[in-house]
User: Fold this.
Amino acid sequence: MDGEGRRQREEAAALELRWTAGGEKRERNNV
Assistant:
């Protein structure tokens, strides 16, 4: 259980980083 939750959190963190990096550029283009 602990291991699975930890993996999920790591995946979410990686997704968040990707979103932030790509989202910022996208937002700037939209504005």
About this structure: The chain has a mean pLDDT of 79. The helical segments are 2-30. The CA atoms of residues 13 and 19 lie 10 Å apart.
